[in-house]
Design goal:
CATH topology: Rossmann fold
Strand content: 5-15%
Strand order of the largest sheet: 3-2-1-4-5
Number of helices: 7
Distance between the termini: 22 Å
Structural class: alpha/beta
Order of helices and strands: EHHEHHEHHEHE
Number of domains: 1
Largest sheet: 5 strands, parallel
CATH superfamily: 5'-nuclease
């Protein structure tokens, strides 16, 4: 079983003042201890770096790059994945669902990854299992 890691989880993991920090940290630690393959996309990396740099600063972005990314496998978004993400975005037809989310969901679909470490409920709405589990 592999797990997809979303921006919302990476951000909560690195920002200790986030309400979900401890729950995400514990879930991440359990996944690492179980040697669960963790996946993300290059779009999530860009989104996470920009969010951390803008809201927290370069030190947090560096921690993400140096401490969390090495534990994560990265699917670099190519033209085909981008196109399937855009098609999903147009079909979804909702302002609240981002292109990054649609690309992530398309990657999960093609790789048969059914679980996401994420706080973004769009993953659950798309039929994915969400970690950390609700209390």
């Amino acid at each position: 079983m592999s797990v997809f890691v979303d921006t919302s989880a990476f951000y909560s993991l690195l920002v200790k003042t986030e309400a979900s920090h401890e729950r995400v940290r514990a879930a991440f630690a359990r996944l690492l201890a179980a040697s669960t393959p963790l996946w993300t996309t290059s779009f999530v990396i860009v989104e996470t770096m920009a969010l951390l740099q803008h809201r927290i600063g370069l030190a947090a972005a560096r921690d993400f790059d140096e401490q969390l990314l090495p534990a994560t496998r990265v699917r670099w978004v190519d033209e085909a994945l981008y196109q399937s993400g855009v098609e999903r975005l147009w079909k979804t037809d909702r302002r609240q669902v981002s292109l990054v989310d649609c690309v992530s969901l398309e990657f999960m679909r093609t790789e048969r990854i059914g679980t996401a470490l994420a706080l973004d409920t769009h993953f659950r709405a798309a039929g994915m299992e969400l970690l950390p589990k609700d209390r």
